[in-house]
Amino acid sequence: MIRRFGRISGPRSPSIHLGAVSAQLLSSCLVPSDCSGDVVHQTRQILDAFDSQLHQNGSGREKLMMAQVWLADIRDFPPFRTAWNAWILPDHPPALSIVRAAAARRDILVEIRIYAAP
User: Fold this and answer.
1) Which of 1, 15, 67, 104 shows a CA-CA span of 20 to 30 A to 31?
2) Taking the model in full, what pTM does it have?
C-alpha cells in the first residue's frame, strides 16, 4: 500500500503529492515555503521539513538512501554544500546528485527530493 502526503492542487499549480511512503520506501520532493532568503535559508527550510516528514513516517536521517538536488544557479553549490553537510549524519550520508536547473518560479533557488527507508 502507498500512502501519499502533502497534496497540492489548483489552477495555478500542478496537482501533486509532496511525498509518498510504502513499506519499503519514503520519497519526498520539496521547495522552500519562504523564497525570500538565499540558498542556505531555502535549503535549511527544506531540510527542516524533511526532518518532520521523516519523523512522522517512522524514519530519520540515518535511513536516507539518496537525494537529488536542483540548484537554479550552480554557483550556489558551495553554500548549499555547507548547509547539507551540517544536516546529514556523517556516518549515514546518502547518495547525492546535484544539477543546475531552472525552477518554475525564479525565486526558488533549490529543490530537493529524498528517498529513505521508513
Assistant:
1) 1
2) 0.85
The C-alpha atoms of residue 33 and residue 49 are separated, in whole angstroms, by 10
Q: Is 22 exposed, middle or buried (0-12, 13-18, 19+ CB in 10 A)?
A: exposed
> How does pLDDT run across 38-81, given as a tens digit for each residue?
999 999 999 999 999 999 999 999 999 999 999 999 999 999 99
Q: Could you tell me which of 13, 66, 70, 74 has the C-alpha nearest to residue 43?
A: 70
Q: What is the Cα 61 distance to its own chain's centre? A: 12
CB of 47 closer than 8 Å to CB of 111: no
